[in-house]
Amino acid sequence: MGTRGRGRVADRSAPKPGEGEADRDGGGAVRSVRSGRSARSVGLADPAEPAASAAPVRGRAERRRSARRAARRRKRSLLREFPLIVLVALLVALVLKTFLIQVFVIPSGSMEQTIQVGDRVLVDKLTPWFGSEPQRGDVVVFKDPGGWLENDRKPSHDGPVLGGTKQVLTFVGLLPSDNEQDLIKRVIGVGGDTVECCDPQGRLTVNGHAVEEPYLAPGNPPSRQPFKVTVPKGRLWVMGDHRDVSADSRFHMGNPGQGTVPLNDVVGRAFVIAWPLGRFHQLDEPSSLSSLAAASQPGGTAPESMGIGPVPTEPPLVMGVLGILPLVFRRPGRPPK
Questions:
Q1: Which of 63, 112, 131, 136 could pair with 289 as two cysteines, CB 3.0-4.6 Å apart?
Q2: Angle, CA 217 vertex, CA 212 and CA 221 arms, to 5°
Q3: How far apart are CA 238 and CA 145, in angstroms?
Q4: Helices 314-328 & 49-95 angle (0-180, nearest 10)
Q5: Active site amino acids
Q6: What global pTM score does this model have?
Q7: Residues annotated as region Disordered (predicted)?
Q8: Which domains does the chain have, with CATH numbers?
Q9: Phi and psi of 230, rounded to 5°?
Q10: Which helix (H) or strand (E) holds 139?
Q11: Rounded to an integer, what distance in angstroms lies between the CA atom of residue 245 and that of residue 18?
Q12: pLDDT for the residue numbered 288
């Protein structure tokens, strides 16, 4: 029994099947395995760790490549959408010019002191579409009724290509027309009014009422040329504020309509001096004219004429639209950068 008992004790240190010499070498293999477990448990270097640490690097590179691809797609998309954006912007400018507001530059001194040479005025083109008609005292822009600007017409020397391009840009309001024949004056009489100058005190009268005219240029009388006219219905009698240099209704009394302007020729009412900013102000109706009672409704050498030209001030708006429309056309789901 003792021998068998000692044999059992000795057998515990004997190599088990499958164990080699290293397993018996003073427990070195056991220590190395334990050391390996201990190394992993304390987070020391492991051969598998470099592959794991490379994964975030590859992820960041892939994200950068994806962002570059998305940016290229957006750029191509914008290039495809740009013609549509330009077309919409031009349509906006055309609608503004045709139906809402147009800006005109003043090239002559016929409306001084109220409006100076070089001023830009905003003209309301919307309210006439709703039946609004100019009133006494309004400053209006109107087309040449015929013969007022015959000496100011300039022949065009543009070739077919340049001329065609300018016609298109003029049509949408991005260029002023070379043939635009517009004038700006103040309405003194409307249809049915009798306008006369001057009374014994040298004042202009409308329907027998003397009119005070504080807007006249200094040193100018109401008129150096006496006249009396009854304005036909549907027409206007207009005069400049700088009477000594204004070739207005007084100098065209021999024309059909006795120098009056048809309502259909009125482009719109100038309501604001928009430029220069130092002169920005609203053009109000003088109370001396606007307060006159309505008439009963019956049914020298002329100074040089000079028309006013429209200014293409729609381009700033067009550029604003060009800047805004990419946001409108941005496809859903794309986060802004």
A1: 136
A2: 60
A3: 12
A4: 140
A5: 110, 185
A6: 0.61
A7: 1-69, 291-311
A8: 103-152+159-312 (2.10.109.10)
A9: -105, 120
A10: strand 139-143
A11: 124
A12: 82
